[in-house]
Amino acid sequence: MTPAARLAAAASVLDSIAQGRQPAEAVLKTWGTENRYAGSKDRRAVADRVYRVLRARGRLVWAMGGREDGRALVIGSLSLIDGLSLEEIEALHSGDAYGPKPLSKQERSRLTATDGELPGWVAAGLPEFVMEDFKSTYGDGWAEEARALMIPRAPIDLRVNAAKATVADVEAELREAGLEPQRTPWSAWGLRLSAEPPPNVQALEAFKDGRIEIQDEGSQVVCWLAGVKPGMTVVDYCAGGGGKTLGLAMQMRATTGRQAAAPEEAKVWTPTGWVEAPKGKAATVVQTDGKLVACDVVQKRLDNIKPRLQRAGVAAELLHLGPNGGGVEAMVGQADVVLVDAPCTGSGTWRRRPEDAWRLTPEDVDRMHSLQTAIVARAAKLVKPGGRLVYVTCSMLTAENEMSVAAFEEDHPNFSPVAIADALDTADLTQAGREKLAELAAGGHRLRLSPAAAGTDGFFAAIYEKAE
To answer: Each residue of 28-39: pLDDT tens digit?
Structure first.
């Protein structure tokens, strides 16, 4: 493909993203499948253009006089991101072959216009209605938080599965595969890969064999704060894709290790499932102690967790909830820990899915707040006296975080706040992690993680204990 044809393709992909709800990654994959003539370099160039535009979308719409179509955004990116002159941009818009048609008079005028100082939300890259929330939450540092969330490409974080491997072993394995993993600073089980160039993690033997999972360090951290230990009854109330379910299951392991001779009662993971280990056979032996239940209202999500559990060599019961949380009546007052990974806008992941920022509306946020307050109230019924409730979102917005837990606290005086500092005594966190999280929590029971403050996706957590 010519450079001009790549621009035309990027504009078409951007229009497809805007017209639907699919992730940009899925739309790009479909485009590549439908356009087999595009080589790997072409696909990468188109994807790079699409993501650069999405991350700067607010500024580009502003620069192009309010136009939101893919063509206008690509044209604006050539000027504002690439720094090309009008003449250079015109050369790429000759209308030849598969390239874009020539610039219109209006497009030329936008490229040469000087509109003065950008509004704050445009400069920061946020949707306009989100800016005041960021200002209220982060004060003078709001713009830095916004830029860290919207502009850089996020790294790829991995969680080493302690049921099958050590961090040192996986780190060495990844280096042998030509990658350059770095230890994550807060999670003791995390490794971080650069997103440039994007690694194909799922093609790695370490992934196929369940020694690693893709999981942002912030997501790992909130798992470790839950305080799960072997022997407990644990509920992952909104299991979703199962990432936190796997992390919780790893914490519930009773014994694990590479043994020269597996005991007769041990089981070995094979691609077809768990089988009895032959006596004397070397095997990774995993025994979990306690009960872990992963719940969700969508059966397909639970079905998708099954192969992940199998690959990781850990176990959990999968429970399909009714539309109003029905199906867990037998577990009321039984759980030592209930993790509520509440449905949210996902604003904390905008550095990974920038397209979602421009689909969000104030009505979406209000709807999520109402849903969250209902869900956490239902989940709280499962906690036994003395048990722990952990509320989590991957959101940066106050309505989904502080406002939701404030409503819960008002309606549930029998749940006492647990200081984040009191949840840090775990070997799953590094010493630096314990110090950093205590600093961010500032003595309270609520914790915010963000790309700027912690180098993670945006997460919120609050911890409670039910009265005896």
So the answer is: 999 999 998 889
Q: Which residues of 117-147 are buried (b: 16+ CB within 10 A; e: fewer)?
A: eeebbbebbbbeebbebbbebbeeebbbbbb
State residue 159 phi and psi, 5-degree precision: -110, 125
Beta-strand (E) ranges in 176-266?
182-183, 190-193, 212-214, 233-236, 253-259
Q: Single out the residue of 439, 400, 456 nearest to residue 145, CA to CA.
A: 456
Question: 224: burial class by Cβ within 10 Å (0-12, 13-18, 19+)?
Answer: buried
Strands (E), 78-237: 156-160, 182-183, 190-193, 212-214, 233-236
- Give the chain's length: 468
Largest CA distance in the chain: 80
Q: Which of 238, 295, 344, 394 is catalytic?
A: 394
**417-435 pLDDT, tens digit each:** 999 999 999 999 999 999 9
359 with 258: CB under 8 angstroms?
no
DSSP-derived secondary structure letter, 204: S
Single pTM value for the model: 0.89
Task: Answer yes or no: are the C-beta atoms of 372 and 404 closer than 8 Å.
Answer: yes
Please state, in angstroms and as integers, the Cα–Cα distance from residue 462 to each residue in 365, 375, 421, 441, following that order: 19, 15, 12, 10
**Side chain identity at residue 274, one-letter code:** W
Report the alpha-carbon distance of residue 29 to residue 47 in Å, rounded. 9
Chain segment 330-350, per-residue pLDDT in tens: 999 999 999 999 999 999 999
Neighbour tally for 238: CB within 10 Å:
23
Residue 223 catalytic? no
